[in-house]
Protein: Ribosomal protein S18 acetylase RimI-like enzyme/acyl-CoA thioesterase FadM
Amino acid sequence: MSERDARAALEAFPGLTWAPLERDRLPAVAEFYAECEAYDANPERRSLAGLEEFWDSPRSRPEEDTLVGSDETGRVVAVAWAGCNRVVTERRGVHLGGAVRPDRRGEGLGTAVLRWQLAHGLAWDRATRREGFGPLVMRLHAPVDQADVRDLAERHGLAVERYFFEMARPLGVDLAVPAVPGVRVVDWDSARSEEIHAMVDAAFRDHWGHVDRTPQMWQEAVTARAFRPGWSVLALDEETDAVVGAALNCAYEQDWEATGVPEGYTDELAVAATHRHRGIAGALLRESLRRFAASGLEAAALSVDTANSSGALRLYAGLGYEPRARTCVHAVAVADPAGPGRVTPVRAPHPTYEQLAGMPAYAEQPVPIAFEDVNGHLNVRHYTGIASEGLDESLVALGIPQNWPASGHACFSAEHHLRYLAELRTGDRMSARVRLLGRSERAVHALVYLLDESHRRVSFVMEEIFLHVDMQTRRTAPWPEDVAAAIDKRIAEDASLPWEPDLSGSMALR
Structure:
């Protein structure tokens, strides 16, 4: 759909007028987002101050990237927002931030809003693309449990790309700040902003989704009204005096009503690659907690990618942070910027045999001749059966025994996506590896790999969502608390694996 046709579809809704966002409408738009985000239980809330900063940024083009839909009374009913990052070219990013007021959902407005956002992002990329520019990636962020917008995203080709834990801990327990040999933890120093910027960007280059920020983008971050330099801290190498770590802390006061307490938020925690695994991140975070408490705050919070391979989840859990909400990212990438505008899910490469072989092995067995089909290889149903057997074995350690139904609980499969990568034949030794990706109140998202141990290759991938079922009612039910805690611990452990999960994009937690 062209951008013009998408705009016409918006204009076709009776009683609504559409116009680019103007500065004097920011309070009304802030109120609109507050209502939407409260209704959706979104842990991340917009503020009027944040909208004003967006408007005032030289990078922003609200007259191009936004449309506000208002009814006859002037009330904001919907916002279409496709924020195009015009200063980063290694990956051309578009943030899809539109929404529809809760009492106007179900009319097709959300579909029309998303289609305009996608069309605008594609049109902008085509009009401004130059040789050497990276791919166009358009992303939408949502709470895991916001089924309406996530279903809409998936119907329009935005596959789930990442899950995040929003984590928090109370500040009632004092944590001593340990000394790190050869390193000093000191106050934030704005005079070293350029050096801090370079260190932070370098530290995050091996993290998902990172692109280096321009000086202007960095300056906006460290002068934002939410940023708290008095709460933020640096780590300096005692020998060279170089900045080797930083914790950038903020006060997102618009979130406090939802959380119920004033809290400090660690927006970024970075340690130079040359100084990792020395306890610097823990020292920076502990000092941040101390400063939060000294300022009268009652809690600390942060967000973490559940597939983060740096061990961050273990660090945060060890310091008392616990998940309080789950969010996710859906994304599409342009398959051919010069083509007809098709989009395709962002996919990671398959992990190698060597990357998987070090994980715990389940369902180890040779391929019996009885499992061969007329093509002379393992029949398709047995790939799935053996992968399921491996998944079941892996869940025993989480408090889900194979006779769980006898105690009134069970796991039911809800969705599968299967990929056959290499033949398994009679006599080949095979085994399963399991990676847990995320959990909702009643479901788990997992990947199961079958390895051909005889030929040292990956043979099969099964992506699955399975549900907890109460066997008395035979309906889905929340996970028991002990099982949920064990699943979360496993998710955190699997997140430290040094490879990206290769998701199909065809399923996601609800």
Summary: The radius of gyration is 24 Å. The mean pLDDT is 91.
